[in-house]
Amino acid sequence: MATEDKNRATAAAILPLVGGAANVSSIAHCMTRLRLGLHDRSLVDDEALKAVPAVMGVVEDDTYQIVLGPGTVARVTPEFEQLVEEGKASGTPEPAPTAEELAGKGAALKAQQKAKNATPFKLFLRKIANIFVPLIPALIGCGIIAGLNGLLVNLGWLPSVTPALAAMASGFMALIAVFVGYNTAKEFGGTPILGGAVAAIIVFPGVANIDAFGQTLSPGQGGVLGALGAAVLAVYVEKWCRRWVPEALDVLVTPTLTVLISGLVTIFGLMYVAGEVSSAIGTFADWLLSTGGAGAGFLLGGFFLPLVMLGLHQALIPIHTTLIEQQGFTVLLPILAMAGAGQVGAAAAVYLRLPNNESIRKTIRSAMPAGLLGVGEPLIYGVSLPLGRPFITACVGGAFGGGFVGLFNQLGDSVGSTAIGPSGWALFPLLDGNHGLGSTIAIYAGGLLVGYVAGFVATYFFGFSKSLLAEFNVSQEPASSTVAATGGASAPGSGSGSGDAPAKEPAGV
Question: Does 30 qualify as catalytic in the annotation?
Answer without folding.
Answer: yes
